[in-house]
Structure formats: structure tokens, C-alpha cells
Design brief:
The complex is a heterotrimer of chains A (442), B (230) and C (592). Chain B has eight helices and no strands. By secondary structure, chain B is mostly helical. Classes of the chains: A mainly alpha (442), B mainly alpha (230), C alpha+beta (592).
Chain lengths: 442, 230, 592
């Protein structure tokens, strides 16, 4: 599967041209509003769920395959019959901020309305203008949701919303709380609001609501969420080992703008968020986000700071292989990530000191070893550098050995991973492991 | 723009708090890969009689000695057998359009035969030659006679009905050495003993720490594409 | 997808095509690029460990042109019958996206100034009578000074590693003392010396020569190029020549240019598209587009274009010109015509030193472009007056990573058995303890060495094969022998246990069965005289002004250096003049 089908690009470009022509006939304030809406749609990453077919932007149809059935993201283009063309701005606002569809139907909480609730009226208006005037109507409906009774009833969603989703009024008030600077306030708004970062990066309660929706609701906020498709969203707080404590503001900005930085490269769901979203944010907004993230406190107070330990690199250079993991590392990993674990960032990411690898959940690391990963191509960094998967080359014991070696070398501290853990992981994540990763032209 | 946003759209699955429903047993992928490539010695192209020739001839070219195993011990006849059923063996990597005309040797190969034809005609020719000159088929001769015959082929003075024996010999020498030194996935170079002879590290493909060792030998044993370790 | 029209159609997705595509897109022109072979990407077939496979790679020609579909015929002299080049061996053209630029080694030279005006230079220094009878010695019609900005531009795209000697007239480093001044240093520092290269550096110095690090388009560090595209650092894995680089560290069109075009809606790359001919209008002065065979659908398709860039491999460019009737075919008897004239190659011979048994040369460690060279006997860096030949050779250790099958087929040197008893011992000794050095030299153009269409054989598309008439000439054999003689003092300074010198022998005919180099050149050369060149100095066809032909086909003679750097500079040079002059005022860029 090629992530960038040529025809898709051609159509998208043609589409952009049509939009540009329409826009030129509009007044400059309308045009500005539309562009603002386009920008916010990127910031809110709407296309991640609502664009299934790149030739039909926002045409919906992305399947959410659940054990209870399959949900399909709806068409949100202004097509009257198939999209949201019949929505009023109020309907639109209710869907985004309250999770209530037209005619009062509650939305499944895959839609991050608890975060969007924070968005200002002005931003919602801009988004409305964009989805009303700036997006081409697509006359195509997403398939009907195939959810089995009784879960096909949406009323339990209403109860969930009453219990856990903030009202827009409360959320907007919270967004106006005191911040050290306007820039940090802007960063907070983007992260907690349209960016809905917590949807993945904040742990959830048993009842599935995020444990915190903003930084003032406690240290759980952005302290790493449950695995998504086998990928474990990393802790975005200032923990030294397992968070972003050693990432500078510029590292974070580079990561969000290009998918790569001196400290690490994006993988899993974050690649989508960068591809559709953060790469389009202004440098000022990216700095605002980074500064805001740097204001957080560590979630895990006991963590000792990470310090590079060169001992293992020296041992390997001397031709000694102290354990089975080191042997596999020398055979398969050191070419790009080096015997000293530093990699060649930002081309090939460092493993030494990489917070993802020291997470108590080794899932992301196991999945990368099995399936490989591609750094998302972005406008500023179009190279889609790809790591091959080793799932067909390494058995469970070998994966466990090399993952453990990586988690415990160069000063890294992570728990030992056993063959049984890997076996279990393969069982739980067979779908993601066996989904072929994107194969970019690079 | 990627088509399905693979990860995030599955978020809701986790949000619904479900457990895995796909349970697959046994994921020893490497064992599976190895099993797929673990080649039985049963020939797929050559007849048993042809294999007897190959066993004998390949071992003349690459014999067992105090430096290590012979071609046959390394699986080379199996390697050559499997190569016959590839585009290479079928001549699909050569220009095979006529007319076919003889010319000076330095202008290269000019026969209408793919490698599999060269073997079929060459082995028949070699056994015929061995019977005529020494009274037995090649494989039944003693090693000394076999070497003399191959030396005669190499010299270019022996002609089979359709080709000069030298062409057949060169084809055989080339494929024998390929089988000794190619990755074990192709059936030869068993246990990477071909590579071990040369201290070639195989598919590791990283020497950043060992670019210039001032003449010291590289420290690590070979690894194969599929992960075999010596 | 049926495309009817584009501003620019580019034939070939190698270096020349990729450079022109990028430049034409920067100029705002829509581009359709046609590539005969398949898509090639690092993330699929170039990926580790599948790409680290000698049998599938260099031995079974994974990235090379498959001669089953189309090849050439070859003869040594005009009175021979040329026979088909049925098995790839002597030279290895590429196929698929990236072309030979995907499987090249990475040696990335500029040209020596004297080589670009070799005829004028030889006459100036040695007199017109110095040029042997039958040698078509010519100038390129462009100078080093004119090309310098484009050499510089190409190096910054390729991420070239090297050490400069002179920048803007000032000596700045320990580079090649014979190299001309540069406007900037190399974008990356020189590659490290492998053990054998370090020994050569020392021995060559002791022999009184001037060693320098080969300029390598293998990145010595990770690098982000002019187009924002990334390279990893070369880790000396040794899989360069004949392979695609899994580390993203050897420059290729696939890594260094095309990713910046892939998402551009006005750039379309069509693979498996074999161009049959360039279409001309009725008076044959203007190209209207091209016709290609869609090899997946087995359907002929015609694209109309304002500008046709012929950027396939050297001899494919000449072949397409002959098939399309662009320019007058060369006739060696009447010595008229230009297309096919001045077909050239390079001389290359390998010598070998065996070191002591406690010196392990680890020849599998290597990088295709890295090494140490001396230029003391290249170009006109030495007095040819008493020697009576034209041309020269660099001498180098370019340990590109020796793989076991290739080593085994070569065996243990001239005196060792090729098989049987004693074979293994000779092979082991040679693989573990020897080092190779090459004399990689020039090859001049001659009146009876040329390209034309073969009268007998056809390709699988029903078109006549290209015929090469080529052999080694006395001038070049004498040059090679002279330079190889200069290797001997290096061998002595190395303290070699024994050594063998490889050289061309008098009367030796070109042998198509043994790999030499893929550095074919000429056949549609650039110049200032339309009676001696098919292209003007901007690589524009003299006859059909909306056809530019980019590649080593433009070289009037084969130089001692590897050609890719020169091809890239010529591509940027031609593109610059297309952009600044041709596009605003289409027509001949040179009028006589």
C-alpha cells in the first residue's frame, strides 16, 4: 500500500486550485477566515478520521473495527445529502463541542468533543466557514455503522457525555485560566483543545474518559495513554527518562514540524498526527506548544535522570558480545543505531536515552522491531526513511533478547522482556503486526 | 496524504475497553522462514544420474580438504538444481534471440542454450566422453581421472555435439562457486562454512566501528540473511 | 492514465533525468518522466537484509538492464560481424527508477580543466602533429570555469564527501594538488581511509606521489541536501556497486532528488514505459513528443511535449537518436555524420599486492566511492612529450567491499589454481591478505570506433539493436602500460610479499566477457562544430532544437575520472541555459 497514491495527489492539487479560484472572488476577510478554518482543521487533525480516500478529502468512511461491530467516520463535506451540508452553524458547533449530531443524536466518543469543547466561538466559526465553503462536497455516504444491538443504541453515549464531558462553557472558562505568558496560554489551547493530544497521551479511567483534560487537572494529564494499535503513546510530561524532560523546545518543534528530531523520530499514530496536522502549524504555534509542554511537571517523581553509559559500546567495539541480545543488536540494529546507541539523528533516531524505549510498556519497541517503521514524509523533510521489520527474521526469544538489550544499555533502564511477553504481544497485536507498513518511494 | 489513517481510527477500539479478539498461536516466524527455505536434497530439475555427475564434478572443483568441506557437503548440487528453475536457469536473463552465429571468444557467449540446456547437454556430453575415454560414466571414475577430464574440458580441446566442453566447464565452475559462497537461503553454503573460510561476515553489513583496524582481523562470525548464526 | 500533453517529457529516471525534472519543475513546467524499468525504492527492495544478497544483486543483476529484452551487438573492427552482447559482463547499464545512478559506486569527480579542452591543450603544449592519425581528439566546448558552479551545485545535492585542496585560489587542505580551484569546499568531510587505503596513502607518498581522498557520494556523515532530503551516514557495508544503499547514504536520484518531486502534482513518473522513438514534425526540425510502449498494458502511447529531454543511459540516448532520425548518422568510411561518432570507453586494469599473513585486509569493508588516489599520471599532469601518447589514469585503492562470490570467481591471482587442489588456499590468502589497486584511465576517440544500428539483430520491440564497433587502440594501451609501470614503486613501498601488475597488452582486443567499467561515453558528443558533434555546448541537438540529450554520450573522449560528476554538472549546466534562455525564447541556443 503506497501512502501517497499519485492520482490522489493530482486530484488534491486540482481541488486546491478550485478552492483558490473561489477564494479569489471572496473578500479578503472571508478568505482569511477560510484559511484560518483550514489551519484549524489541520490543527484538529480532522482528516485523520474523516478522510479515508485521499481523492475524496473529508468524505468519511474510515472504518473503526470493533469487536462489537464496525463504525464508519461520517462524510463531513458540505454535500447536502451525504455530508453536513444541511447543518446549521449551531448544529456544527454542537457536534464539535458537545458530541451531539444533527437532530440530537449523540456521537460515539471517538470524536474528541471533550477536547474540542475548549475551542472558542471564533475558531468554531472559522472551521464552519471552511467546512461549508472551503471543502468540496462529496456525494458519497460512509457505510451504515454495523453495530450489534444493544450497543447500536446511542443513549448510553448520552449518559457517558453527561457524566464526563465538560460543557463548552466550563471548558472555555478553564481555557482562560492563568498562564505564565500568552504564548504558553496559546500552547495550552492548542494542546488541550483542537490538538486533542490527551485523547491518546492521557490515561483513561475504567469508564474510558481521560483522567484529566487539562494541565490543571493533575499529573495524569499527558502522562502516557493506553496502547493504540499496539503503539504506546509516550509520556509528554517533563519526566527525565520516560518523558520529554531532556527534549529542548527546539527538539519538540522540529519533531512536530518534520516528524524527526535529534532526540527521536515519530512512529505509529503520531506519524498521522504530524502528517495531517502539526506539520502545517506555524512556527510560532509549534513553539507555543513546546513551551507549554515544558511547563509540565514530571508524573513519576522517583525517576533518576538518564546519563549515557559508554561501557557497552566499548565492549562491542572490542569484539565481545556479552549476551544474546547484543549479538542480535550487532547483526541487525547497530548499522543505523550504532554500537553507542546514539544513532545518526535526525536521520536514524537514537536509542540511548530515548524515552519511548524506557517506558514500562515495551510494546512500541517490540512493534517497531517486528514491523519496522517509516519516518513520515513532511513538507520540510520529505525523506521517508524506513526501518525494515524483523518479524520474519527474529523469533520471540530473539526479539525479547534484543529489546531487553536496547532497554538496558547505554544508561537506559527498562524492564526485562521475555519470550513469553513477545509471544503474548504478537497474539494481542497480530492485526497491526501483519498490516503491511507503508512503503514510501524513497 | 495517507489513505486510511491506520492508527488513530482504531483508537475507539481501545476506548471501548476491549481485549484482543485475534488469537493466533505460535509465532516462531524465523523457524517458519527457515522451514520454507530448508531445502530437501531431492532434486527438482536434474535426474538422479545428472545429480551423481554434479556431486562428483562439483567436488573436483571445490574439494574437501583441511581447509573445510567440499561443494557437495555445502549443498552446492542442491543450489545448482534450484537455480535451474529460476529466470536465470531458464535463460531469461540472457539475450536469446537469433540468429545464433559463432564468433571470436572475446565477443562472448553465442549459443541458443539457457543454463538448464547447458547442463543437460553438458552432463550428457561429459558422461559420453568419460565412457568413451575411460570406460565409465564420470561419477564412477576415480577422482584422479575426473580431474583429468575436467582439465581437458577447461582446456577447450573437447567438443560435445552442441557445444565446446569448455563452455560447460566454465558454467559449472561459476555455479559451483556461487553455491559455495551465496547466502544459505539458496541451498548452498551450508552453515555458512563457505563464508567462514573467507572470514566473510555475511549479511551484517555494518563496519562503522571497524573501518580501519590497522590490519587486525574483523572480530565477529557471519550471520545470514535469515538470521542463521555460525 | 492516458496523458496527451506535457510541457516537458523526460526519457529516463536516472541522474540526468532527475536533475532535469527537478530543474524544469522549479521553472514551473509540467514534467512527465518515462522510465523503461520498474519503480525502485529503498523501503521495498532496497531494504535490509534482503538487499544484502550478492547472488540476487551483483551476480543475478537485480538492478541491471535485462538484455533479454534489448541489448547491443559488439565487434572489434569494421570488417567483423558484430555479435549480440547476450550476457551482461563487460558493462552493466541500469534499469528502473534511478537507472545506473541507483547501483553506481559513488566516486564523484569533477573534470580536469585540461580534459575539457583536450584538443586545444595538446596542440598548445605538444603541437598538432602529436595527435595520432585516426584519433578524433576534440574539445567539449565548455570550460571548467563555466562548469564550476554546476559541479558545486551537484556536490551539494549528492552530499559529496571529500577534502578540498584549493578554494577560491587559496590552499585550504590536504586534497588533490592537481585539482583545480573550487568555489567551496566539499559539503561533507572526506570518508575515512579503510586499512588498505591508509597503506596506499603512505606508500604512494613514499613513492613521491600526491595521494588524496577520492571524492565520494557516500555520505561521511548524515546529511540534508539542497532539496531538504536526508542521507544516512555510510557505514562501509560494502554494498554500493551493483546495489541500492539500504543506509540511504549513497547518493541516488531515488534518495537525493525524486522524493522532492513525488508529491508534486505537475510531475508524473511513468514506469515500465519503454520509449520507442521521439516523434518529429514533417520537416524533422522539431520534436512533437515521444511514443512509448506501456509494458504493463502492452500498448503504445504518444505524449506531446514542447521540450524533449533525452536522459537515458549513454548508448540508449544514441540508439534513440538513430531510431528517431535526430541528427545525421555517422559513417566512418566517408567520415561524415555525427550520431554514433566518438564512441568511447575507459581503460581499467587492476594490480594486486599480497601483504604479510598477519595483515588482514578485510576487503568486505568498503564504500564504493571511498579510497585514496594519485593523479600524478592522470590528464596532462605529467609531460607527455617524450611518451608520445595522449591521456592518463588516476591510480587508486578503491576498496568498494569485495563480496565472496566475486572474489571466488576471480580466485587467487594469476599463479593460483582456478579450481581443485590449491584453489581454496590461494583464494583465502588473496581474500584475507591482499589489496587491489586500479589504473582507471582515459580512452580516446577514433575514426573507426563508433555506434550505429545493427543490420541483423532486433530487440523484443522489433527495433534494430545498436551496434558497437570498439577495441583497444595502441595509444591507450601504451598509456595504460606507462601508468601501470608507475604502480611498481607503490608496491615496493607497501612492502608487499608479492604483487601482480595488471595491464592491457599490445594488440589486445576488447573482451566483452569480463567486467571492466560501465563508463561508456560519446556517440552523441557536445562541441562547437556541428560537423564533429551531435550536440552544441548546451547539449542541445544541432538539428532538432527542442531536444536536449543529457549524459556521458556528450563526452568527446573518455577521461580518467569516473563520469557521474561530469554528467551531473552537464545536466545542471544544460538546465540552467534551458531555464534562463531557451524557455523564454525557444530555438537554437547556438547559431552559427
Amino acid at each position: 500500500m503506497m501512502p501517497f497514491p499519485r492520482t490522489g495527489f493530482r486530484l488534491l492539487a486540482a481541488f486546491g486550485f478550485i478552492l483558490a479560484t473561489q477564494a479569489s472572488a471572496q473578500t479578503s476577510s472571508q478568505k482569511d477566515l477560510l484559511e484560518k478554518g483550514r489551519y484549524l482543521a489541520a490543527a484538529a487533525d480532522c482528516s485523520a478520521c474523516h478522510t479515508h480516500d485521499a481523492t475524496a478529502p473529508y468524505g468519511g468512511g474510515n472504518p473503526f473495527r470493533l469487536p462489537i461491530g464496525t463504525l464508519y467516520a461520517p462524510n463531513i463535506t458540505p454535500d447536502i445529502q451525504h455530508g453536513i451540508g444541511s447543518y446549521t452553524e449551531t448544529d456544527f458547533s454542537n457536534a464539535l463541542r458537545r458530541g451531539i449530531g444533527k437532530n440530537g443524536k449523540p456521537l460515539y466518543p471517538a470524536m474528541p468533543f471533550p477536547s474540542y469543547a475548549r475551542m472558542t466561538d471564533a475558531d468554531i466559526h472559522a472551521l464552519w466557514i471552511y467546512f461549508h465553503d472551503g471543502v468540496a462536497p462529496i456525494a458519497r455516504s460512509a457505510p451504515d455503522n454495523a453495530i450489534h444491538w444493544p450497543l447500536s443504541m446511542r443513549w448510553p453515549m448520552t449518559l457517558w457525555r453527561w457524566a464526563f464531558a465538560p460543557t463548552p462553557k466550563a471548558a472555555q472558562a478553564n481555557a482562560k485560566r492563568d498562564f505564565p505568558s500568552d504564548e504558553i496560554a496559546r500552547g495550552a489551547y492548542l494542546v488541550e483543545g483542537p490538538g486533542h493530544c490527551g485523547a491518546c497521551h492521557t490515561p483513561r479511567a475504567l469508564t474510558m474518559q481521560e483522567k484529566a483534560l487539562s494541565s490543571d487537572e493533575g499529573d495524569a494529564f499527558l502522562s502516557s495513554g493506553a496502547a493504540v494499535d499496539g503503539w504506546t503513546p509516550v509520556n509528554l510530561r517533563q519526566d527525565d527518562r520516560t518523558g520529554l524532560g531532556r527534549w529542548s523546545e527546539n527538539d519538540i518543534v522540529a519533531f512536530l514540524a518534520t516528524g524527526r528530531s535529534k532526540k527521536g523520530s515519530a512512529f505509529g499514530g503520531m506519524s498521522d498526527a504530524i502528517e495531517h496536522g502539526t506539520q502545517y502549524l506555524s512556527t510560532a504555534d509549534l513553539h507555543a506548544i513546546a513551551r507549554y509542554l515544558k511547563t509540565s511537571l514530571p508524573a513519576r517523581k522517583h525517576e533518576k535522570p538518564w546519563h549515557a553509559n559508554p561501557a557497552i559500546a566499548q565492549t562491542l567495539r572490542e569484539g565481545r558480545l556479552p549476551n544474546a541480545g547484543s549479538r542480535i543488536y550487532i547483526d541487525r540494529c547497530a548499522a543505523c543505531h550504532r554500537t553507542d546507541g546514539h544513532g545518526y539523528a535526525p536521520a536514524f533516531p537514537p536509542l540511548a536515552g530515548n524515552p519511548t524505549l524506557m517506558d514500562k510498556d515495551p510494546g512500541s519497541l517490540i512493534l517497531i522491531v517486528l514491523r519496522g517503521a517509516t519516518v513520515v514524509p513532511t513538507q520540510k523533510a520529505p525523506s521517508a526513511l524506513t526501518m525494515p521489520g524483523f518479524g520474519h527474521v527474529l523469533n520471540d526469544q530473539e526479539v525479547a533478547d534484543v529489546v531487553t538489550f536496547i532497554r538496558q544499555s547505554w544508561g537506559n533502564s527498562g524492564s526485562t522482556v521475555t519470550a513469553a511477553d513477545v509471544h503474548d504481544f504478537r497474539n494481542r497485536n497480530a492485526e497491526w503486526i501483519n498490516t503491511p507498513p507503508p512503503k514510501p518511494f524513497n | 496524504m495517507s489513505t486510511p489513517s491506520s492508527s488513530r481510527r482504531h483508537f475507539v477500539r481501545n476506548a471501548a475497553g476491549t481485549t484482543a479478539f485475534l488469537l493466533l498461536a505460535g509465532h516462531d516466524f524465523r523457524a517458519r522462514a527457515l522451514a520454507a527455505t530448508a531445502l530437501s536434497d531431492k532434486p527438482q530439475f536434474f535426474t538422479p544420474e545428472e545429480i551423481r555427475f554434479l556431486n562428483a564434478a562439483c567436488d573436483c572443483i571445490y574439494p574437501h580438504d583441511d581447509l573445510g568441506p567440499s561443494a557437495t557437503e555445502l549443498g552446492v548440487p542442491v543450489f545448482i538444481d534450484r537455480q535451474m528453475n529460476t529466470p536465470y536457469g531458464r535463460g531469461e536473463l540472457w539475450y536469446m534471440t537469433g540468429p545464433f552465429r559463432e564468433g571470436p571468444a572475446n565477443l562472448g557467449y553465442q549459443l541458443p542454450f539457457a543454463p538448464r540446456d547447458l547442463y543437460r547437454k553438458g552432463i550428457a556430453g561429459a558422461d559420453h566422453y568419460a565412457r568413451s575415454a575411460r570406460g565409465k560414466v564420470f561419477a564412477d571414475l576415480d577422482t584422479h581421472d575426473q580431474i583429468e577430464i575436467l582439465t581437458a574440458f577447461e582446456g577447450g580441446a573437447v567438443h560435445f555435439p552442441d557445444l565446446n566442453a569448455r563452455l560447460f566447464f566454465e558454467q559449472l565452475r561459476r555455479n559451483t562457486l556461487e553455491g559455495v559462497f551465496a547466502d544459505p537461503i539458496y541451498g548452498g553454503n551450508r552453515n555458512m562454512e563457505g563464508w567462514a573460510l573467507l572470514a566473510f561476515p555475511g549479511a551484517r553489513a555494518d563496519f562503522m566501528d571497524w573501518v580501519n583496524q590497522e590490519g587486525a582481523a574483523y572480530p565477529f562470525a557471519p550471520v545470514s540473511i535469515s538470521g542463521q548464526k555460525a | 492514465m492516458t496523458l496527451k500533453r506535457t510541457d516537458v517529457v523526460i526519457i529516463g529516471a536516472g541522474w540526468a533525468g532527475a536533475i532535469l525534472a527537478k530543474e524544469m519543475r522549479e521553472a514551473g513546467r509540467s514534467v512527465v518522466m518515462l522510465e523503461r524499468g520498474p519503480e525502485r525504492s529503498t523501503a521495498t527492495e532496497g531494504t535490509y537484509p534482503g538487499s544484502i544478497d550478492e547472488l540476487r544483486g551483483a551476480i543475478r543483476h537485480r538492478l541491471f538492464q535485462n538484455p533479454a529484452k534489448t541489448t547491443v551487438t559488439i565487434r572489434n573492427t569494421v570488417n567483423q560481424t558484430a555479435l549480440p552482447y547476450r550476457q551482461l559482463a563487460a558493462f552493466l547499464p541500469g534499469e528502473g527508477v534511478g537507472g545506473a545512478g541507483l547501483h553506481w559506486s559513488g566516486v564523484h569527480f569533477r573534470a580536469a580543466p585540461d580534459d575539457l579542452r583536450l584538443r586545444s591543450h595538446v596542440i598548445d603544449r605538444y603541437g598538432a602533429k602529436f595527435i595520432p592519425e585516426g584519433m578524433n581528439l576534440q574539445d567539449y566546448g565548455v570550460t571548467y570555469e563555466e562548469l564550476e558552479p554546476f559541479f558545486d551545485k551537484a556536490e551539494k545535492v549528492f552530499g559529496t564527501s571529500g577534502e578540498a585542496y584549493r578554494v577560491n585560489g587559496q590552499i585550504v587542505g590536504n586534497g588533490n594538488v592537481f585539482a583545480p580551484s573550487r568555489s567551496d569546499k566539499f559539503p561533507l568531510p572526506a570518508m575515512q581511509d579503510v586499512y588498505t587505503a591508509s597503506l596506499f596513502r603512505k606508500a604512494a607518498s613514499e613513492a613521491g606521489y600526491h595521494p588524496y581522498s577520492l571524492p565520494a557520494a557516500n555520505a561521511s556523515m548524515q546529511y540534508t541536501n539542497t532539496y531538504g532530503l536526508q542521507m544516512g551516514p555510510c557505514n562501509f557495508c560494502g554494498y554500493c556497486s551493483g546495489y541500492d544503499c539500504y543506509m540511504y547514504s549513497k547518493a541516488s536520484p531515488n534518495i537525493n532528488i525524486l522524493p522532492s518531486l513525488r508529491y508534486d502534482s505537475d510531475f508524473t513518473l511513468i514506469t515500465d514505459a519503454h520509449v520507442l522513438k521521439i516523434n518529429l514534425d514533417s520537416d524533422r526540425r522539431k520534436a512533437t513528443g515521444v511514443t512509448y510502449l506501456d509494458q504493463r498494458e502492452n500498448r503504445e502511447t504518444t505524449i506531446e511535449a514542447d521540450l524533449v529531454i533525452l536522459a537515458a543511459f549513454q548508448f540508449h540516448n544514441v540508439h534513440l537518436m538513430l531510431l528517431s532520425g535526430i541528427g545525421r548518422p555517422y559513417d566512418p568510411i566517408s567520415n561524415t555524420g555525427v550520431v554514433g561518432r566518438n564512441f568511447v570507453y575507459q581503460t581499467i586494469t587492476t594490480s594486486r599486492a599480497w601483504l604479510s599473513e598477519n595483515q588482514f585486509t578485510n576487503q568486505f569493508v568498503g564504500a564504493g566511492g571511498a579510497g585514496v588516489a594519485v593523479d600524478d599520471f592522470n590528464s596532462d599532469n605529467f609531460d607527455h612529450g617524450p611518451l608520445g601518447f595522449v591521456g592518463g589514469s588516476p591510480i587508486w585503492v578503491n576498496q568498494a567491499g569485495v563480496k565472496p562470490i566475486a572474489a571466488a570467481l576471480n580466485g587467487g591471482g594469476k599463479s593460483a589454481p582456478r579450481w581443485g587442489a590449491g584453489y581454496k588456499a590461494g583464494l583465502v590468502d588473496t581474500y584475507r591478505h591482499s589489496l587491489a589497486m586500479d589504473a582507471h584511465g582515459s580512452n580516446m576517440a577514433y575514426r573507426d570506433v563508433y555506434l550505429d544500428l545493427d543490420p541483423t539483430w532486433h530487440d523484443s520491440y522489433g527495433q534494430p539493436l545498436l551496434r558497437m564497433t570498439f577495441t583497444w587502440k595502441e595509444n591507450d594501451i601504451r598509456m595504460n602500460q606507462y601508468v601501470v609501470g608507475k604502480i611498481e614503486p607503490i608496491m615496493k613501498a607497501l612492502g608487499a610479499r608479492r604483487y601482480e601488475l595488471g595491464r592491457l597488452e599490445h594488440g589486445e582486443a576488447f573482451d566483452t566477457r569480463r567486467y571492466q567499467t560501465t563508463h561508456l561515453g560519446g556517440g552523441a558528443v557536445m562541441g562547437t562544430n556541428p560537423n564533429e558533434s551531435a550536440l552544441n555546448r548546451y547539449l542541445q541537438s544541432w538539428d532538432v532544437s527542442n531536444v536536449f540529450v543529457i549524459g556521458s554520450n556528450a563526452f568527446p573522449q573518455g577521461m580518467g575520472y569516473n563520469p557521474t560528476g561530469m554528467v551531473a554538472a552537464l545536466a545542471y549546466w544544460a538546465a540552467y541555459h534551458i531555464r534562463t534562455t531557451y524557455l523564454t525564447q525557444p530555438g537554437p541556443l547556438v547559431t552559427l
